[in-house]
Design a protein that fits this description.
Elements lengths: L1 H11 L2 H14 L4 H17 L3 H21 L4 H17 L4 H17 L4 H13 L3 H14 L4 H13 L3 H14 L4 H13 L3 H9 L3 H4 L2 H13 L3 H15 L3 H13 L3 H14 L4 H13 L3 H25 L6 H4 L5 H14 L3 H8 L8 H17 L3 H11 L4 H13 L3 H12 L4 H13 L3 H12 L6 H13 L3 H14 L4 H14 L3 H14 L4 H13 L3 H14 L4 H13 L3 H12 L6 H20 L2
Helix pairs in contact: 1-2, 2-3, 3-4, 3-5, 4-5, 5-6, 6-7, 7-8, 8-9, 9-10, 10-11, 11-12, 11-14, 12-14, 14-15, 15-16, 16-17, 16-18, 17-18, 18-19, 19-21, 21-22, 21-23, 22-23, 23-24, 23-25, 24-25, 25-26, 25-27, 26-27, 27-28, 27-29, 28-29, 29-30, 31-32, 31-33, 32-33, 33-34, 33-35, 34-35, ...
Length: about 650
């Protein structure tokens, strides 16, 4: 009777009376394991509710004593052992340094697993303990047992997914998601997770197929429609993506995420004006949204409205900084949140604003914008500000100041060292530069090699790039990044066959690398070689990055080389909308118009190409002369 009273008092929350009742019951029945187990649970509960560390520790110590007594009285009783295991687990949760308690909990739950073959909760608890201890493979085994015991248990599947992801076994995660969808087709988390993994490995069409196979009510939800629109966009189906976005907006209303994505699709289609209008509307509704502002600025730059883009960023930065200053004034003195938010808030956008000003050759305004970032608490922001400021100073013929800035602030960072070397080369101090770059590349770190090599790449010293990368690869494994750098430098210096070989080596390692697919495909297109393989490669690159003007131009140029001029024109017109001031793109566009007999449009495209900074002036002028001759010949025909 006293045991029943003790449990009733504990359930009612009369803890003091319950403690007294349990102590009396233990004295009356000292060899009853169930009494000890129930007493243990009460003590653990009191410890968890207490705010006093001392009292909590006292109750946990008493709980451990009672738990050990219960275990000795019933060493093979699964119910008693679960209470004991949970007690040691609570001790470990209160004191994460107490690994011994966690190990004891693991041993007990492993024993319970053998005694209770159909208890899914035991397996999930054991799996979590094993995962915390870093024994991932054993945790995965425990979670697999849990889903075998309880095939429809979504929580067990969730734990299994977490364990598989932590060990990088994404192919198995995909199968788990498929298993969940088989018994529960309406499981949104599994559906989105599977589509995300398929997209991450480049199978965007597979992700689209997965999403479209969902039940209609699930497919109609905002998150699934948005994910489908993203995967359609990444697969190159811009029309399909736009249709899904319009359905989502019609059904659920337009939020910044949907609106931004719709603008990106419109922009990728070359419908820049519509994209800008969409983003202006979003910005009016969300005047402090940095993502919307940045997307709008990039669209405006593509439209040749760089000054307006800079103004947009400046206005949003001002709003965000005012808000952050107000928040900081109201925050407690020890609150670190404002500093942590810098990279994604006003400070991060300020860096983007400065980059835009540099692109417009507004050197002093860029310096002014960057000035506050030199005191930023986030190291990446400070480094970014230093690198951009150094570039602006050099452009203003203040090279010594630029070197002093980089030497003083971030001399150990590979990016800063590489920038110093680049400035030394520009200032015609090659010996100092070469030593810095050789030391950097010789450090054995890939990031340092890339930083050093990119300096030579930017300054068109391609032999030096090849030298640095090949020296590095003598002692280190090749990676897609190192091979891309090597292959592109070989092509630039005229070693075509060697470049092809390295690109093929890269693509064996990373078959869906969009930059390598595009680069190699365009190389062949320029020479009129391997055009069918080039078409397949560049099509895959464009599918992954449909808003890349360079990729779309490559695709159009391959169609041109194949003599498929109408298809070429469709892609080249879109490329010219994506990169409005690229001389090569505009020249290609003129060639397509000319091949189709649209001579006035060809003349206009060539004229725009001539005004571009990277234009091949002599070649384009010659093409304009040929147009004149062709028009004269056409006019002379009877």
């Amino acid at each position: 009777m006293s045991f029943a009273v003790a449990k009733l008092l504990a359930d009612e929350g009369s803890f003091r009376e319950a403690l007294e009742a349990f102590e009396e019951t233990v004295e009356l029945a000292p060899k009853d394991p169930y009494v000890r187990a129930a007493y243990t649970e009460l003590l653990v509960r009191l410890a968890q509710l207490s705010r006093s560390p001392r009292y909590r520790q006292q109750q946990l110590q008493r709980a451990v004593e009672q738990a050990q007594a219960a275990r000795s009285l019933a060493p093979k009783d699964p119910d008693v052992l679960q209470v004991v295991g949970q007690t040691f687990l609570t001790v470990a949760e209160v004191d994460p340094q107490n690994v011994a308690a966690l190990q004891t909990a693991r041993e007990i739950f492993q024993q319970v697993r053998e005694l209770s073959p159909n208890d899914v909760t035991v397996r999930m608890t054991l799996g979590q303990i094993l995962l915390y201890l870093g024994r991932t493979d054993e945790a995965i085994e425990a979670f697999r047992e849990a889903v075998t015991v309880s095939p429809g248990n979504r929580r067990a599947y969730g734990f299994l997914v977490e364990a598989l992801r932590s060990s990088g076994r994404n192919d198995e995660v995909e199968q788990v998601y498929r298993d969940v969808l088989e018994f529960d087709p309406g499981a949104e988390e599994a559906l989105l997770g599977l589509a995300e993994l398929q997209g991450a490995r480049g199978d965007h069409l597979g992700a689209v197929e997965t999403l479209r196979a969902a039940p209609p009510e699930l497919l109609a939800t905002e998150q699934v429609r948005q994910t489908l629109a993203v995967q359609l966009f990444l697969s190159g189906d811009l029309r399909g993506s736009l249709a899904e976005l319009d359905r989502a907006i019609s059904d659920h209303g337009e939020n910044p995420s949907l609106g931004r994505l719709r603008a990106l699709v419109l922009n990728a289609q070359g419908r820049n004006q519509e994209a800008a209008q969409q983003l202006w509307r979003l910005l009016a509704e969300n005047p402090k949204d940095p993502e919307v502002a940045l997307t709008l600025a990039r669209v405006l730059v593509r439209m040749g409205r760089g000054e307006e883009a800079a103004q947009v960023l400046g206005e949003v930065v001002a709003r965000l900084e005012a808000e952050e200053a107000e928040r900081a004034a109201d925050a407690p003195a020890d609150d670190a949140a404002p500093a942590a938010a810098q990279a994604s808030g006003a400070a991060g956008l300020r860096l983007e604003w400065a980059e835009l000003l540099l692109e417009q050759e507004q050197w002093q305004p860029a310096l002014d914008v960057l000035e506050p970032l030199h005191q930023a608490e986030v190291p990446q922001l400070r480094l970014g500000a230093e690198l951009l400021s150094a570039e602006a100073l050099v452009r203003l013929e203040r090279g010594d100041e630029a070197l002093e800035l980089l030497s003083r602030s971030s001399s150990k960072d590979p990016a800063a060292v590489a920038k110093r070397a680049e400035l030394l080369l520009r200032l015609e101090r090659p010996d100092e530069a070469r030593k810095l770059l050789d030391d950097l590349a010789g450090s054995g770190e890939e990031v340092s090699l890339l930083a050093a090599s990119l300096v030579y790449q930017r300054l068109e010293h391609y032999d030096e790039v090849v030298r640095l990368v090949r020296n590095y690869l003598e002692d280190h494994e090749a990676t897609p990044r190192t091979l891309f750098l090597l292959a592109s430098a070989l092509e630039r210096r005229g070693s075509f066959d060697d470049s092809v070989r390295e690109f093929r080596r890269l693509l064996e390692m990373d078959p869906n690398n969009p930059d390598a697919l595009n680069y190699l495909g365009y190389m062949w297109a320029e020479r009129g070689e391997n055009l069918q393989e080039a078409l397949q490669m560049v099509s895959r690159a464009v599918a992954q990055e449909p808003d890349s003007g360079a990729f779309v131009d490559s695709l159009g140029w391959i169609y041109y080389q194949l003599g498929r001029y109408q298809e070429a024109l469709e892609h080249l017109e879109r490329a010219a909308h994506l990169v409005t001031d690229d001389g090569t793109v505009l020249e290609h566009l003129g060639d397509a118009y000319r091949a189709l007999g649209r001579l006035e449009e060809a003349r206009e495209a060539y004229g725009r190409a001539l005004r571009a900074e990277d234009a091949e002036q002599e070649r384009i002028v010659d093409k304009l002369r040929q147009l004149d001759a062709q028009e004269e010949a056409d006019g002379a025909e009877p």
